[in-house]
Amino acid sequence: MLESLYIPFAALLFPGGLFALALGLTLKGFDRRLAARLQARVGPPLAQPIYDLVKLARKRTMVPDIANEPVFLGAPLVGAVSMALAAALVPIPGFYTPDPVLGDLLVLLYLLTVPAIVLMIAGSASGSPFGAIGFSREMAMMLAYEGPLVLVVAAVAMRTGMGMGGWISFSLTDIIAYQQTHGAFLLDPVMWPALLAFLAFYPANLGIIPFDIPEAETEVLEGPLLEYSGPALGLFKIMSALKAVVVLGLGVALFYPIAPEGAAGLLVQVAKMVLLMLIGVTVVRVSYGRMRIDQAFRFFLKWPLALSVISLAFVALV
Amino acid sequence: MNYVKTLIRNLIRGPSTVAYPFGPAWTPVHFRGRVEFKLSSCTACRACEQVCAPGAIRFDKTPEGLRFMLWHNTCVFCGLCEYYCPTDAIRQTDDWHMAHATANQYQMAIREVIPYVSCSACGTKALASAPNPVGVIPPFSAEEIEQQRNLCPGCRKTALAERGVTK
Amino acid sequence: MTTLIQTLSNRVRNMASRSPWIYRINAGSCNGCDVECATTALIPRYDVERLGCQYCGSPRHADIVLITGPLTARVKDAVMRVYAEVPEPKVTVAVGVCPISGGIFRDGYAVHAPIDQHLPVDVNVPGCPPRPQAIIEGIAQAIAIWRERL
Asked: What is the span of the domain harbouring residue C93?
């Protein structure tokens, strides 16, 4: 009985769902506060993302005449649910280990592509030309950043697998256990290229400057999100908040999962995620302008790809 | 790497935001804001109506006198009326708190009537000239000015001709 | 019980009213007012984000609509269509004297000013252009109106 309740509980309440949503909204609040501070502004209150969600819940949802209504309204729901599930897959070192029933790193990688795909579907279902432009840009960005991401994850998995006497291990539990005994990959020079490549992946996956090209407000009027309003838009906001938690948690698990046991582990995890958010997202987004899609594509096929290949080679040779 | 320096400076120094609307705001010294009209200085020369580019100033004849009207919602704060007003009856203040609900938009106006007086000599209706125009010093004594003010333009012409020039 | 529900709904409404998203419509403006509107968000000195505001690119996300310009004959249909795309509840702010009365273009053959004969306007911010703080003042008044409509 308890076994069968585990998956809904994990996906809806504790590491996924509500908890991850609260954490994600707080992270976004921190992000906006610090971005404002770095730009010498005061910025919105910390709870601003929550206010935004409450506001969106009270607005009317408009569906364009030419939109495919079930797909148009279903897409954000699929995105939010998949990210809630993905959040249940991310371990909190020392506090929570996902049950192997849910899946491993590979499932997480697949789930991480869902938001991008959902945005593409939403953009094309809305019937708006800006949505179509957003679709093609999202596709190009996804092709650009997924390759390096997979190679980085493979490098980490290989390092763990070879360290444990096998060949490759896609179990996040193994990766964390290996680092807790052999030292974090953050301090391992062999893994530094992979770490750099992973940092470049953050802004692209979270859709922020300099890689917010698919949702560029000033160019394609928020692209796929253009036609959304009210609760449907709120679901997209929930999706992006959950996605921030997932990728930040993934980063912590892959590179620095050293944490004390028990409730302190949870606090340390939150602190690490806030720090990673500030370094990997906020500072980047206030210091660069938006790239063009061809520049971003070329950038990803040049630096992160090269770095992740180098890292993979290091891992295989050392 | 200049932007890194800027970021660090901002992080340490904190925001440079003005507290408004939660606190006071700073207004520049020569800010050209809401126009102010001083009825007692107006001589009804209508120069302001002539130069007003968006047509915010209008003069109307009413039974009581000449009505001066200025709608702030058309005024573009160019300052021509202040510049051309010979008696400083129109002045620009530095007040910029002019946002208002649309329901009140027609209250955002100056409506003043420059009254008619009847001429003390012939009894016809004439505009009362301003009692204290700024920057004009007529070569008359105070009682004489008061006498002249109550005459219509025709009677005043006659009276001045009869009076002659005094040193 | 009813009072509890009332306080709760009031609390929720207050929370919602702290997140007004702003959308700008340029109805044939000379761009002066648009620059001042952008200034309220982009220049640290004014920072409209303190009120929870955010300039959004899509009319569908908007709560407060800032209209600039005297509604030229050429742009009129487009403005009406974009305005209809903004979901309820919404509040309209006319920025600058052009949409309020026509300003310098009043009674011109190419403009359809004042704009309030074509769509409902709630707050006027006169000026040519109004200074950024005046726009923030207008937005603050618009938020007060919007809270009642939520």
From this structure: 2-149
Find tokens 């005046």 and name the residue: C134
**B4: part of which helix (H) or strand (E)?**
helix B2-13
When pLDDT is cut at 50, 70 and 90, the band that residue B135 belongs to is low
| A287 and chain B in contact, CB less than 8 A | yes
Mean per-residue pLDDT of chain A: 82
Between A94 and A66, where is the model more confident? A66
**Segments making up each domain of chain B, as ranges:** 30-162
Per the CB < 8 Å rule, is A51 touching C52? yes
Q: Tell me, what DSSP letter sits at residue A79?
A: H
- The CATH number of the domain holding residue C11 is 3.40.50.12280
B99 and C122 within 8 Å at the Cβ level: the answer is no
Given a contact cutoff of 8 angstroms between Cβ atoms, the answer to whether B54 and C104 are in contact is yes
| Cβ partners under 8 Å of residue A243, min gap 6 | A24, A83, A86, A112, A115, A205, A206
> Sign of torsion, CA A68 A73 A76 A77?
negative
The pairing of beta strand C64-68 with beta strand B125-127: unpaired
In this structure, the dihedral spanned by the alpha carbons of residues A126, A127, A130 and A131, taken in order and rounded to 10 degrees, is: 40
Record the tokens describing residue A98, joined without a space. 């996902």
The answer to whether A54 contacts C19, with C-beta atoms less than 8 Å apart, is yes
* Multiple choice CATH, B30-162, 3.30.200, 3.40.50, 3.30.70, 3.30.310: 3.30.70
Residue at token pair 């039974």: B63
Q: Which whole number is the average pLDDT over A89-105? A: 75
Look at residue B98 and give its three-state secondary structure.
coil
Residue A241 predicted with pLDDT over 80: yes
Q: Taking CA B107 as the corner, what is the angle to CA B102 and CA B113, rounded to the nearest 5 degrees?
A: 160
Q: How far is CA A160 from CA A180, A256, A311, in A?
A: 11, 13, 13
3-class DSSP string for chain C:
CHHHHHHHHHHHHHHHCCCCEEEEEECCCCCHHHHHHHHHHHCCCCCHHHHCCEECCCHHHCCEEEEECCCECCCHHHHHHHHHHCCCCCEEEEECHHHHHCHHHCCCCCECCCHHHCCCCCEEECCCCCCHHHHHHHHHHHHHHHHHHC
Q: What is the pTM of this model?
A: 0.83
> Taking CA atoms, what residue in B is nearest to C106?
B54
Closest chain B residue to the Cα of C47, Cα to Cα: B17
Closest chain C residue to A128 measured between Cα atoms?
C58
Structural domains of chain C, count:
1
Number of H helices, E strands in chain B: 5, 7
| Higher pLDDT, residue B134 or C41 | C41
CA distance linking residue B4 with residue B160, whole number of Å: 79
